[in-house]
Amino acid sequence: xxxxxxxxxxxxxxxxxxxxxxxxxxxxxxxxxxxxxxxxxxxxxxxxxxxxxxxxxxxxxxxxxxxxxxxxxxxxxxxxxxxxxxxxxxxxxxxxxxxxxxxxxxxxxxxxxxxxxxxxxxxxxxxxxxxxxxxxxxxxxxxxxxxxxxxxx
Amino acid sequence: xxxxxxxxxxxxxxxxxxxxxxxxxxxxxxxxxxxxxxxxxxxxxxxxxxxxxxxxxxxxxxxxxxxxxxxxxxxxxxxxxxxxxxxxxxxxxxxxxxxxxxxxxxxxxxxxxxxxxxxxxxxxxxxxxxxxxxxxxxxxxxxxxxxxxxxxxxxxxxxxxxxxxxxxxxxxxxxxxxxxxxxxxxxxxxxxxxxxxxxxxxxxxxxxxxxxxxxxxxxxxxxxxxxxxxxxxxxxxxxxxxxxxxxxxxxxxxxxxxxxxxxxxxxxxxxxxxxxxxxxxxxxxxxxxxxxxxxxxxxxxxxxxxxxxxxxxxxxxxxxxxxxxxxxxxxxxxxxxxxxxxxxxxxxxxxxxxxxxxxxxxxxxxxxxxxxxxxxxxxxxxxxxxxxxxxxxxxxxxxxxxxxxxxxxxxxxxxxxxxxxxxxxxxxxxxxxxxxxxxxxxxxxxxxxxxxxxxxxxxxxxxxxxxxxxxxxxxxxxxxxxxxxxxxxxxxxxxxxxxxxxxxxxxxxxxxxxxxxxxxxxxxxxxx
Lengths: 153, 528
Fold this sequence. Notes:
The complex is a heterodimer.
Chain A: H1 5-27, H2 35-38, H3 42-72, H4 82-87, H5 89-102, H6 105-108, H7 115-134, H8 136-140
Helix pairs in contact in A: 1-3, 1-7, 3-5
Chain B: E1 5-6, H1 9-18, H2 31-35, E2 38-39, H3 41-47, E3 51-53, E4 56-60, H4 63-74, E5 82-86, H5 93-101, H6 127-135, H7 139-146, H8 158-171, E6 178-180, E7 182-189, E8 194-199, E9 210-214, E10 216-219, E11 226-227, H9 230-239, E12 245-247, H10 253-261, E13 265-269, H11 273-289, E14 294-299, E15 307-310, E16 313-315, E17 317-318, E18 321-322, H12 336-341, H13 346-356, H14 365-377, E19 380-384, E20 386-392, E21 399-404, E22 410-415, E23 417-420, E24 424-425, H15 432-440, E25 468-471, H16 487-503, H17 512-523
Parallel strand pairs in B: 2-7, 3-9, 4-5, 4-10, 5-6, 10-25, 12-23, 13-14, 13-23, 14-19
Antiparallel strand pairs in B: 1-11, 7-8, 8-9, 11-24, 15-16, 17-18, 20-21, 21-22
Helix pairs in contact in B: 4-16, 6-7, 11-14
């Protein structure tokens, strides 16, 4: 990938809204949980997983993507190898977990989510988004690859 | 064509078609037409040149014309609205010729990104995925996912590209749009649009010329020409010696065969991809077939380490070579490089070209290992210097090159053969279509001296009423986009041109729906 800063942010927002949300809708019922123990419902788990998406989005748009763009300036080609994106789930998920804990989101919604809920959700969502960027996005938006990742404007 | 140029199939055919006829033939250009910048319909009638109406004409018929026609067909333009004027039977003819002589036969790999697919507008599934599926191997996928960090860039085999093109030619009914002949010139038309003068193959039509009257014209006529290095051309002319100096873009298989039979010394000149290819051939012959070739390698600019700072990064270099994955930094194909370029004019743009261009080659472990063995075993030597003089050797069996090195000292290099791998491109004026465009149609030059185009690849200054004239490919190098002379670059140019045409009502803008439905047709090889 050869993103510009603007393109990075647009791609990230698109992915979280149009891939992250549908995927979360699909996968949440199947994630490990402790609804039996706490008596909370599936809706509580949905509230939890959607909060995680929100945290990832805010951290990415106001933090990570700026940092990546800065790091990209140290690359001669000003490109962003797809392997980087694959592994960047590690720091992003850790920071998101810290924020998740700090905001007490796990507890807020009847504590139906466990640590496993969080990790399975974030890692699978990341992989689906990553696979989408490798190919299908170019079929939807033919200008995406020639516009540094810009989609909307 | 001047005599310091290298012939390609297109230029040879073109010269033959353009040769003056034995007897005056009807329907030829007359003085009035040649002199007048903007033509009226009556002028052509007076000259007896028949007029053919079509909305869109693409001149060239090589990779550039093909990629744009592919885009236009997918944008819903019917074959009847497009004519491709060409002296090539199929779009990859010149390309295959150049890759073959420069040591990339169909089985070898190009220097092209896995997603730079002239036969697939979407670049997905990429060549790597296709190869993985066809050959039931996971390696290509692993490679593209880990490049350039854990692996060198994966690149497709030339044969894979040609086979894909053949299919897409049939799918888009390319041949229905193809008209054989040699384009002589494009002139603006009084009242809007353009006339493109075509010289059909001798004897195929009653008149010597045919005029295509169109609202839009696209020029994709490839290299204005490839030139010999001036000092080698001077040597060839002065000593009438063609046997000891060869350009890598000329057929030169006999050189390699000769070296297998009789050991010799070769001087390779240039530090780009062609030099790398030629070195590999010489070294493979040495290591696998027992040749005893001594290889001298002359760089004009010798890079021993990182150089040329852009952003916070410097380009890698070693043992003379500068390393860069593709023709330009990857971000030229849509990322930061082109974004930066779009803000630069004149000298500022040239400066960025100087910084990120020049001769360079991809970093490939195979090549570096091979060169290291050559240095260790004493059969590969590199030099830096400017050539001062080229003379025949005393025994008549070679050439002596005198160079001036950066430290001021001079040295002489004696070799049996000089192989020029510099790939020097001629001025655009060497091509008669560009020369005519500069002289009569208001076209200008960009900061590198080639054809000036705007971000939509419209040739600046050539607008004619509601007509537009576009250009893509190597002639537009020096514009905002540095990757013009590549598969992916032709696609980027074609996309910008197609969008610009759609904005004027020619073809439909390819949105999500059209893109997805056409991709699905492409996947099923469904003819459009």
